[in-house]
Amino acid sequence: MDFKEIKKLVKLLKEEDLAVLSISENDTHIHIEQKGAEAAVQPAADRPAPAVSEEEASKLIEITAGQIGTFYNQKDENSDEIFVSEGDKVSKGDQVGFIEAMKVFNDVKSSVAGIVEEITVANGDAVEYGDVLFRVRPEEA
């Protein structure tokens, strides 16, 4: 099993909101657990609906992770202050979070001015390059 296949499994774990994913192939066994996941897996019918419909999502601009690491929306480890919440207005270039990798902190900045419609990751979540972090409804000109 190569790295790309494992990466797909991690993405599947997140997308399906699974607590645990365990796969065996020949002599290889992969066991992945989601940090902070509840022990019981929630049935699909009981999961909350996405915050934004597909039609609305097509009008939104996505802010994505520029690297692999841990995403933080909290400004400081010992603080409750966050960079942005859903419904907040942001300007182009505003810092909306940061990604930590090997004790190096890289700012995540908004590429557009508008309203934060959806935050797709939680504080402390592992992210990979290209993962969607925020969806922003751009300001109308």
Automatic annotation (TrEMBL):
Domain Lipoyl-binding, chain residue ranges per copy: 58-137
InterPro entries named in the record: Biotin_BS, Biotin_Carboxyl_Carrier/Decarb, Biotin_lipoyl, Single_hybrid_motif
SUPFAM superfamilies: Single hybrid motif (SSF51230)
Top-rank taxon: Bacteria
Keyword Aminoacyl-tRNA synthetase: no
Signal peptide bounds: none
Keywords (A to Z) from UniProt: Biotin
Protein name: Biotin carboxyl carrier protein
